[in-house]
Write a structure and sequence with these properties.
With 359 residues, the protein is an alpha/beta fold. The chain has two domains: 187 residues, P-loop containing nucleotide triphosphate hydrolases (Rossmann fold, 3-Layer(aba) Sandwich); 120 residues. 53% of the residues lie in helices and 7% in strands. It is built from 17 helices and five strands. Strands 2-3-4-1-5 form a five-stranded parallel β-sheet. Helix 7 links the parallel strand 3 and strand 4.
Length: 359
């Protein structure tokens, strides 16, 4: 999926993005030096705001403030974007003639991938003269959803970059990208937010939400507010709490598990946030359980997770839990790639987790 859960702009002010100053400082320095790299690859965990940061960078480059600094060259550019700036405002509305945003189109798109024709559309866009006399900027959200043909088309653009053009590429899995693409980009790793910053972001997005609910999501998402938003809006967080209660129950309830996994593993491109949320949550649960069983400490569990973790440690050894974790990551990727019934995959895993392996 594109990094839709990587976007967590404040709806009232799309410039109010928290953190990632290393990237903004590097971008301002590149503009000041006159050596702006033509391609920036923004990496880091999903949900920390890479796509939002890329769009804000595009708005900054296409703002009238940046254009004036570039024209007269009499000031060191500062990375600051006003939502009232005419150029930036056009970017935020998706109406700037020198801005192109590319993401998967969900309509009639079972794979959820960015199509090769979308990448080819960048060629005439990059070739034309800037309509407003500045930069041409494209944002690819995300490179994780581009197949081999699309990647090859992207590589041609990176090999022969036009002047006054910048491409921001977003990726949560840069290791899976072709080395030829990574080597032609300036790679910047963005980090997860700390807990306090994460709570602040979520509180701005949901000002009327219960503080306890905000705290739970902030703890669950691991410093990625976009992930918290996706977990909440897709229903994956609610499903996870039900899953933990079922795994901790004294008696196996297959019917309830089947009803849960039917919601948690719903199919097609529209269900991908829910399925990804299921994998994220079960990944977290199994890591916590394996660490607890081995006597280690790492993440602090949420209150609703503790009962499930205690029961899993009584049913399985640390090695068995680690094996379940490895199988989850491998088999979920296979099920997604082959368009298998994800709800059945989740149901089989839940039943395995419930069934005792310790003597």
């Amino acid at each position: 999926m594109n990094d839709a859960n990587d976007k967590f702009d404040d709806a009232a002010d799309p410039t109010a993005i928290v953190g990632h100053s290393d990237f903004t400082n590097a971008l301002a320095g590149a503009l000041a030096s006159g050596r702006m790299h033509h391609a920036w690859l923004l990496t880091g965990p999903r949900g920390i705001g890479k796509a939002s940061m890329a769009r804000l960078a595009a708005a900054w480059l296409l703002s009238e403030q940046a254009a004036a600094t570039s024209l007269f060259g009499d000031a060191v550019p500062q990375f600051a974007v006003s939502p009232d700036d005419p150029g930036a405002n056009l970017v935020f509305r998706g109406a700037h003639p020198d801005y192109l945003a590319i993401a998967p189109v969900l309509d009639d798109n079972k794979s959820g991938q960015i199509k090769i024709d979308q990448i080819r559309d960048m060629v005439p866009f990059m070739a034309h003269k800037p309509a407003r006399g500045g930069w041409r900027v494209a944002v690819i959200d995300s490179m994780d959803e581009i197949n081999r043909n699309g990647a090859n088309a992207m590589l041609k653009l990176l090999e022969e970059p036009p002047e006054k053009a910048v491409i921001f590429l977003v990726s949560s899995r840069p290791g899976q990208l072709p080395p030829t693409i990574r080597s032609r980009c300036r790679v910047v790793r963005l980090s997860a937010l700390d807990a306090a910053m994460c709570r602040d972001v979520l509180a701005k997005i949901w000002p009327d939400a219960d503080a306890g609910h905000i705290d739970l999501l902030a703890q669950l998402c691991g410093g990625a507010p976009g992930r918290a938003i996706s977990l909440a809006e897709s229903g994956a967080a609610d499903c996870y709490q039900v899953a933990c209660s079922l795994l901790a129950a004294p008696k196996l309830d297959v019917g309830a598990m089947a009803a849960l996994t039917g919601k948690w593993g719903r199919g097609a491109a529209a269900g991908r946030p829910t399925r990804e949320g299921a994998v994220f949550c079960l990944d977290r649960l199994l890591r916590l359980a394996a660490l607890t069983a081995s006597g280690g400490t790492s993440l602090t569990p949420c209150n609703f997770e503790t009962g499930a973790i205690d029961v899993l440690c009584k049913r399985h050894t640390a090695a068995t839990l680690a094996g379940f974790h490895d199988a989850l990551l491998k088999d979920s990727s296979r099920a997604e790639g082959l368009y298998l019934d994800f709800s059945q995959f989740l149901l089989r895993l839940m039943i395995k987790l419930y069934e005792k392996t310790l003597p």
